[in-house]
Automatic annotation (TrEMBL):
Keywords: Phosphoprotein. It comes from Floridaenema evergladense BLCC-F167. The modification 4-aspartylphosphate is found at residue 56. This is Response regulator. Residues 6-123 form the Response regulatory domain. The keyword Phosphoprotein applies. Pfam families: Response_reg.
Length: 131
């Protein structure tokens, strides 16, 4: 697991965050850093090298926009891909997602077993390790 990808996970709902953390670390084999807010996520960004961010924007729309702007304005973090995980995933077209700097959206509720494969596909990561 030395080459495991590192993912920042931001979700305000503690129970959903816990399930996502388990899916991504246990099934996906990734290093997961979880945050309960965008402010906490920004603080964590400055301390770690990350391969992706997975975030929900349902509860704090304005904070999520500011978070993404700060991520994309910083030369050290602007290339980190961001995935949206939300109950409203079907509301967004691929163009909407690109305009908001997201590489894709995953719908809640999600299938915990298939979530890592879905994330790998959206991010273009090799998912051969995941069954």
């Amino acid at each position: 697991m030395n080459n495991a990808k590192s993912i920042l996970l931001i979700d305000y709902e503690a129970s959903v965050r816990a399930v996502l953390h388990t899916c991504l670390s246990e099934i996906g084999g990734w290093n997961v850093i979880a945050a309960a807010s965008f402010e906490e996520g920004l603080a964590l960004l400055s301390t770690r090298k990350l391969d992706a961010v997975i975030m929900d924007n349902d509860r704090a729309k304005r904070a999520s926009i500011i978070f993404v702007q700060k991520l994309k304005e910083n030369p050290l973090t602007q290339s980190i891909p961001i995935l949206l995980i939300t109950y409203k995933a079907s509301w967004y077209t691929p163009q909407n997602l690109r305009d908001m700097n997201f590489v894709g959206a995953i719908a809640k509720p999600f299938d915990p077993v298939h979530l890592p494969v879905q994330i790998s596909q959206l991010l273009g990561w090799n998912s051969s390790v995941i069954s």
